[in-house]
Recover the amino acids of this structure.
């Protein structure tokens, strides 16, 4: 009896609770609360899924990271260019007479290893003609200069390749960016091969030549030109990823300024490239006067070689004359760009970039004239070579500031 009464009371209690829940669920307040709760849950899940999907693709934060990496790589390329210029000025580039990707990373350690390395150097024209009285300590200096340049080149390669692999796996690159970084990495590898190809030209025996042993000015200019292209591409890509484009009205004057800036940048690049021919032919030592070349505005031996085209690449007088003309033309173009920009309303960053470009141009010309008049002292000449890269950097910055808004 007792158990049946307990069972009956429990069943009645459950039925009454069920009826009360159904009645309460019919109330409009509870129904609205349940609907709102469901909507908020769906919104939160959608926001979470969108956040996760945004984190898995390139965004503004990852672009800034990649941009900083490319700017760092371009800085390393500048170091390689400067170090290469100093190596050329100290006549150290032919001290290492073979090339090995890994084995040469460790320089000679013992006295026997140094003597063996010096013995190899003694078999080539530079020692026989120019440095036949060189001592082992003097050889160590030029060896370490070239070794440092080569090791810096390997550092540049690692700085491009290793982060590329990491960022690729992280998904930081867009489809177009993948093509760009692959091109940059390939260009680094090509640059290393081109450097050894240049050095080989200075190690060859040339019985018919009475000139001092030196690398081919053609290969030197190709080596420098490819390094500058690598630098420009890295710097441009890094700046465009770091600096947002300005919202400037596309007026006729702005388009003219943009074209003017592009032409000026090309002229600055060409002037820097002509410096490789000056260095390769030691053309800075033929006429150490300014503004005239000797007693004349146009020297007598300007077109002494035949055919005429050969003078522009192999005649030291013509090469120096061309470099002067290009430098003065670059200065004139940059001055015109500065004056033209003063008459326009431009963003502050663009005005600063153009002003710095103009100031650097006058400083670079002053450095070049001083280097010429003082018979090319190594510290001043190295500063002048570095100044050409600084001027090119500012020209690229100006172009980045004046670029069009992406559609």
């Amino acid at each position: 009896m007792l158990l049946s009464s307990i069972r009956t009371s429990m069943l009645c209690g459950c039925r009454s609770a069920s009826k009360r829940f159904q009645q309460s669920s019919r109330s409009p307040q509870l129904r609205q609360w349940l609907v709102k709760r469901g909507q908020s849950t769906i919104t939160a899940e959608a926001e979470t899924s969108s956040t996760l999907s945004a984190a898995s693709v390139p965004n503004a934060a990852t672009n800034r990271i990649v941009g900083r990496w490319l700017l760092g790589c371009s800085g390393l390329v500048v170091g390689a260019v400067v170090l290469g210029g100093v190596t050329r000025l100290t006549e150290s580039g032919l001290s290492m007479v073979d090339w090995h990707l890994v084995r040469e990373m460790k320089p000679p350690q013992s006295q026997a290893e140094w003597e063996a390395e010096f013995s190899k150097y003694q078999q080539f024209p530079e020692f026989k003609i120019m440095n036949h009285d060189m001592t082992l300590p003097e050889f160590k200096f030029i060896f370490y200069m070239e070794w440092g340049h080569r090791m810096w080149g390997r550092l540049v390669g690692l700085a491009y390749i290793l982060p590329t692999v990491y960022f690729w796996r992280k998904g930081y690159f867009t489809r177009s960016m993948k093509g760009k970084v692959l091109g940059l990495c390939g260009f680094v590898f090509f640059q290393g091969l081109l450097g050894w190809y240049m050095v080989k030209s200075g190690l060859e025996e040339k019985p018919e030549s009475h000139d001092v042993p030196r690398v081919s000015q053609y290969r030197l200019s190709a080596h420098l030109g490819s390094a500058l292209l690598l630098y420009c591409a890295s710097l441009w890509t890094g700046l465009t990823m770091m600096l947002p484009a300005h919202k400037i009205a596309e007026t006729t004057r702005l388009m003219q300024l943009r074209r003017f800036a592009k032409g000026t940048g090309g002229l600055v690049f060409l002037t820097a490239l002509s410096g490789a021919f000056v260095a390769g032919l030691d053309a800075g030592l033929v006429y150490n006067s300014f503004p005239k070349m000797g007693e004349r505005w146009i020297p007598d031996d300007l077109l002494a070689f035949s055919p005429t085209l050969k003078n522009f690449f192999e005649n030291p007088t013509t090469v120096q004359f061309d470099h002067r003309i290009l430098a003065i033309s670059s200065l004139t173009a940059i001055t015109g760009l500065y004056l033209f920009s003063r008459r326009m309303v431009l963003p502050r960053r663009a005005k600063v970039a153009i002003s710095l470009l103009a100031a650097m141009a006058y400083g670079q010309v002053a450095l070049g004239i001083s280097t010429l008049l003082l018979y090319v002292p190594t510290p001043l000449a190295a500063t002048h070579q570095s100044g050409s890269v600084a001027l090119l950097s500012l020209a690229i910055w100006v172009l980045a500031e004046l670029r069009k808004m992406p559609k």
Remarks:
- Residues 243-406 form one domain.
